[in-house]
Design a protein that fits this description.
Pfam families: Peptidase_M14 (PF00246). The protein has ten helices and 14 strands. The protein is an alpha/beta fold and about 375 residues long. The strands form three sheets. Strands 1-2-4-3-5-9-7-8 form an eight-stranded mixed β-sheet, sandwiched between helices. The protein has a four-stranded mixed β-sheet with strand order 13-12-11-14, with no helix packed on it. The chain is globular.
Length: about 375
């Protein structure tokens, strides 16, 4: 499908039943019930706090794709994109018919419902599920591994969010979407499994460069066998990590969600139409590695008194995401003061343009942070 056709569809058909940053199980249960009449929807287990975990299986083709979202409960962007994908494929068209005859797609839309409820990375036992792939100490980890073994995927999509600090390389552009073909050994060997993942990522990147040029990053491939992606890759299944990042003024991540949706459609289409041999993987390495070069806000050349000396300083501010009354609020805090000329702000202000100059950092906090 041509990208302009997909964009036009999305403008009027985005799944409006899910939006914003805070998604818990109650946010998606109606959609799960909606698709239970059309697809194979089953409860495959329960979380620590006994919330149900579902799988949604669609299609009956030979190429099997397994994807899961909200392994980290506070990473909801890809969950929204997954439901956009389900809505798109539920429309009766030649395109969806071909996809569903060529592939079988198994989706776990919310692996960590307890973490989603609390808006935390970890589960109810304070365990990061993405560091539990070997120990399998948590019920949610066991559920995913059992599904992996039973479904027998040809490809895995590990769907996540990343922080606003990431840039796409050393450029003043955020890593709106990042990808990774995880390592499967400590030497980060470029194995056949990795090449297959890299080939698919390269295709998604080519598409995204038309839409958000320079805003695609490559996530660090340091090996950790305790991570799910590294484990599944080491078990012989090409695995792709998706990381949803920041887009300008998009803290609700609705634009990022859109680009993840396009990426999902593109990758699934490519898998269905091609025999993935890992032959066209080289362009993966042209994607710039993620760098941690962004603050949410930078005040440049701001006059402060630091250690009794008056000097101009840059002030780097980040937001903490705090759940309050079922809404995520972005609370600013000072992360760094000093020379930040090698860093970027999603918003920047010049001290030269501000009439009131605080005399110390505490006055700055009182006068400025309260107004952000």
């Amino acid at each position: 499908m041509e990208i302009h056709t997909l964009i036009n569809w999305y403008k009027t058909n985005v799944e409006k039943k899910v939006s914003g940053r805070y998604l818990n199980f109650s946010s998606i249960v109606d959609l799960i019930n909606l698709y239970s009449g059309e697809y194979n929807v089953q409860i495959i287990g329960h979380s620590v706090n006994n919330q149900p975990i579902h799988k949604i299986v669609l299609g009956n083709g030979p190429k099997k794709i397994l994807m899961w979202s909200q392994m980290h409960g506070n990473e909801s962007t890809t969950t929204k994109a997954v439901f956009d994908l389900l809505k798109f494929l539920s429309i009766k068209s030649d395109f969806s018919k071909n996809i569903l005859s060529d592939s079988t797609i198994c989706i776990v839309p919310m692996l960590n419902p307890d973490g989603a409820t609390a808006y935390t990375r970890v589960n109810a036992n304070n365990i990061d599920l993405n560091r539990d792939a070997q120990n399998l100490s948590q019920p949610e980890s066991k559920i995913l591994r059992k599904l992996f073994n039973e479904f027998g995927p040809d490809f895995c999509f590990n769907l996540h969010d990343q922080r606003t600090i990431f840039s796409a390389g050393k450029n003043k552009k955020p890593a709106t979407v990042s990808f990774l073909s995880p390592a499967q050994d400590k030497d980060r060997s470029v194995t056949l499994n990795r090449k297959k993942s890299m080939e698919i990522i390269s295709v998604m990147n080519d598409m995204l460069q038309l839409l958000i040029p320079g805003q695609v990053g490559r996530y660090d491939d340091g090996f950790n066998i305790n991570c799910v992606g590294d484990t599944f890759q080491s078990l012989g299944v090409p695995t792709i990590l998706f990381e949803s990042g920041h887009y300008h003024n998009d803290y609700s991540r609705e634009k990022t969600r859109e680009y993840v949706f396009y990426s999902l459609v593109k990758s699934i289409t490519y898998i269905c139409k091609n025999e993935i041999r890992g032959e066209n993987f080289e362009n993966y390495f042209n994607i710039p590695e993620n760098e941690k070069l962004f603050y949410d806000i930078i005040y440049r050349n701001f006059p402060l008194i630091i250690n009794g000396e008056e000097k101009k300083s840059d002030i780097g501010i980040l937001f903490k995401e705090i759940l309050q009354n079922c809404k995520v609020n972005f609370i600013p805090f000072i992360e760094n003061c000093g020379n930040l000329e090698d860093f970027f702000g999603h918003k920047e202000f010049s001290g030269n343009d501000i009439d009131y100059f605080p005399t110390d950092i505490n006055t700055f906090k009182t006068h400025y942070l309260a107004k952000i």
